[in-house]
Structure formats: structure tokens, C-alpha cells
Amino acid sequence: MTEYGPSARATPPDPEPAEGPDADLRPTAPRRSDATRTAILAAARERFAADGYERATIRSIAKDARIDPSMVMRYYGSKEGLFAAVLDVDLRLPEPAALDPQGVGRVLVTHFLDLWEENEALTAMLRVSVTSSAGAERIQGVFRDQILPVARQVCPDPEQAPVRAALSASQVLGFALTRYVLRLPPAVSLHREEIVAWLAPTVQRYLTAPHPQTSP
Fold first, then answer.
1. pTM
2. Whole-angstrom Cα distance, residue 80 to residue 53?
3. Which of 53, 70, 63, 187 is nearest to 131 (CA)?
4. What is the Cα Rg of the chain in Å?
5. Tens of pLDDT, residues 127-161
6. Which among 176, 170, 173 is positioned nearest to 206, based on CA atoms?
7. How far is Cα 113 from Cα 189, in angstroms, rounded to an integer?
8. Of 45, 129, 151, 171, which sits 20 to 30 A from 34 (CA to CA)?
9. Count of other CB atoms within 10 angstroms of residue 41
10. Cβ atoms within 10 A of the Cβ of 114, count?
């Protein structure tokens, strides 16, 4: 005899965390999901950095993360989506309105040093940008665009903000490349206060100094 009704329906298991009033009945699901995403992103950063965007494959990334390739596709949709996620970063810059224009260079350099020293993912992302033109454009855009509101707030002419933001990004990224990726000994050996003393005045000048006069 065939049984009808809710008890006869087989509901496929949902590996995603439940939402709504029953979500607390599955406390471990979000942790599994987060751990999977973390493993995928970590493997992708290393693989993109080692092989470049073109040569890296979803299969190799999944193997590094010790998961099935279908899981990578499920979370990120495509290699392009995964690559975008790898290079999507919030620099957590201070609120522009709260910055003192006269001390913005020191604040930004100190902030970036904190990020590089505490977050290995940023170094991995920089390595990705070195091996991929698409990665370089992406990470340059992240730095330029997130510094742009700061430049608009403190520079003497808002129309110059994009150029000033780009110049400031070039200073921070250039130093990060030499210290954390290329690991040039003189850059690695610098103490924190020495780095701030060297870089902060340059970033300050980029953001707040009058526009340099050029010959016609």
C-alpha cells in the first residue's frame, strides 16, 4: 500500500546552513560551510600565485583544498568568480571624515603595515597580481578605489583625487612587493618606525601637497 502525505516525501539533505526559526537546530553547518570556503580561497590564492590565472584550473584548486571540484563551482560558479573572490579585499581604511589631513600619510602607512603584517592572505594576493595581468589590474583597482575617498577628503583639489589615490597606492604596493613578496633584504630588515618615517612623508605629499608645476 502506498502511503501519501508529508511523511512519505523524501527531502534531499541541504548542505547549506538552515535559515529561519529552525536554524539553531544545525549549529555545525555554518562552520562547515565557512571552513570549505576558507579552504577553497586559500588553495586558490596559492594556485593562482604559482600558476597564474590562465594555467590554474578548478580541478587543481579543488585537489589542493581536498574537496570535489563540484564544490568549488557550487560556491563560486566559475574560475572567473573564484578569481574575483580571491582578489576581493576590504582594506578597512579609517573613515575619511575622521582623518586629520596633516597626519594622513602616517595614519595610512601605519594602517597598511598592520594589514600586511597580520594578514598573510594579502601577501598571497599580491603574489597573484605579480603572475597575472588581470590580477594586477584587480588589486591595483582595489587599492586605488578604496584610497580614493581618502584622497577626495584631504587633497586640495578633488579633481586630482584619482591621480593622488593611484600614486599613494603605488607607494604602498611597491613597498609591500619588495618587503613581503620579493623579500629584498634591505626592505625586510627595516624596522616598523623606519618604514613609517620613510614612506609616510611621501604618501602625505601625494595626498595633500600642491600640484607640482610642470613645464609647458
1. 0.71
2. 9
3. 53
4. 23
5. 888 777 777 887 778 887 889 999 999 999 989 99
6. 170
7. 14
8. 129
9. 20
10. 12
